[in-house]
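User: Fold this; tokens only.

Assistant: Input:
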Amino acid sequence: MLISLNQQHVPACREIYKSSVYAVDDQAYSPMQKQVWANFHASDEFADFVLQGLCLGVTAADGHLLGFCTATMRGHIKSLFVHPNAQKKGYATLLLQEAIGKLQHNDRLTVDASKLSLPVFLRFGFTVIEEETVTREGVPFDRFKMIKITSS
């Protein structure tokens, strides 16, 4: 079931974020990269990251949060995370479909995609406009700036 996230969901989002990052294959991201990436879940900024703008979650029948997607109302998708135990079951697709639908008022959507999320966004019609390396806590990360034109 799709829901709008609120403050009570932040602890579950923190756990989903951290678990998802640590579940990433070491060939995609090194243990040091995963540690730095996962550290954000404990930051003071995390709640704002999850709750500002479009804040969608997907839950199991019992109400347990399985994943979340956040975006700015100007069309920048900030996050798309599904708990490792719930991956490969269509939840990321469901979240992204809903987010794109709610953001259609923008003439373009953007995302800074990780190596892992790149195939998902490509399937949804996003195009890579630039590959870049960013540094977090002295650790480099490759990511992909992507765009999807929603109207002509």
